[in-house]
Request: fold
Amino acid sequence: MLYRSTRSAAHDKNPSFSDILLSGLAPDGGLYLPMEWPRISRETFLKWRGLSYPDLAAEVISLFAAGSIEPEALRTMAHAAYSHFDHAAIVPLVEVENGLFSLELFHGPTLAFKDMAMQMLGQLFEYVLEREDRTVTIVGATSGDTGSAAIEAFKGKARVKIVILHPLGRTSEVQRRQMTTVQDNNVLNIAIEGDFDDCQDMVKAMFADTAFRQEVSLSAVNSINWARIAAQIPYYIRSALALGAPDREVSFAVPTGNFGNVLASWAAEQMGLPIRKHIVGSNKNDILTRFLLNNDMSVTGVEPSLSPSMDIQVSSNFERLLFEMLDRDADRCCAIMQEFRQTGRMAVPHDAWEKIREHFSARRLDDDETIAAMRRFYTESHYCADPHSAIGLEAGRHYKEADIPMIAAATAHPAKFPDAVKKATGLQPELPPHLADLFSRQERYSTLPNNLSDVQSAIRAHIQPR
Ligand SMILES: *Cc1c(COP(=O)(O)O)cnc(C)c1O
Reply:
């Protein structure tokens, strides 16, 4: 399987899965997509019904890694990746109301769905770096969940150093401690005296500094990395198979910000899974809802909400869907993205928007509506959802059609957002046993001013062989 960028024509030196795994973004600034979508036959779907989650994940990912990584190696990696989950089903499916299901993606080490892809990415990086005898320095910025998932996935990996920047004092205590209490020597946490945008700008500046990038072999694991999307496809397939696919349609509702998780459900449809609708759930940062309801994709600035992992300005992964809806016309896609960058307003052609609307609907919940939804699912079904998951469930409930199961992606454990859960339900959700002593663990991080050369020096010092 070879890959191409959304921003330039395919050519004869298209990269393989292992090439794009380590580079993330294409050199032209575009996002990678497979040259064509692998198709899964009805017979194969039926055969997959009985597989364990790791075996199914290996089967799906091997379609994207064909020619780069052997299926047997992927199976070993998938079993290792999902061995740190604290639920035997890995991704349990719970019926919350008649025909409305919660697909729980938060049973991994950091209690958010980012573990689903990141744990697999840790295995894939280790495998490819070993084979190519290379080392990399992963640098990332986080407002919370991504940083801890990345640190958990890459801690202790011999060929990887990982550096995560977080805005000083602006992550929740659980989120900060999940990052800063990891004691492995290849992990460096830096608290930046600034906000999340400062952290992200600093990461971008490091990637733009070619000399530094080569000196430390810079790499990224942000949500535009194709391998992350690929590793998010198996749970859509698995839950649909459990409810009657491929002989029955299902719909998915996904609380999303960067459009990563819902892009994976759309990808599953391209591969042949019968999906009726993809429902996007958003909070008051509703750029995606405004787009899907009114073709208004305009940047308005981020407001903090009860579902902070969806507090975003621009949904990076949307570019992949746009490219497909322009019939893979890279020139048009590139022009639209450049104009969006300059004006803060994306002019999606009306016919492309209408095509998108055939597959997607959307629902926005502000903070009060989110609390009300959490309270209702708790009082009517004894189901305790975190704010992100409640947005997915409520969006799904709104669009549920008779006879078509609606599967909502539950993306965080309630204990990750205890204040909102307490307010909505009166419950004080408990951290699972492996994190029960989180608040008494030793923290380790550096605090640095919002200054690029200070951060670069700290990274150089961190990657010196000890
Ligand atoms: C990251 C995250 C999301 C949004 O994921 P996208 O990649 O933007 O689709 C939703 N909920 C939680 C808890 C998250 O951590």
The radius of gyration is 21 Å. The chain has 20 helices and 15 strands.
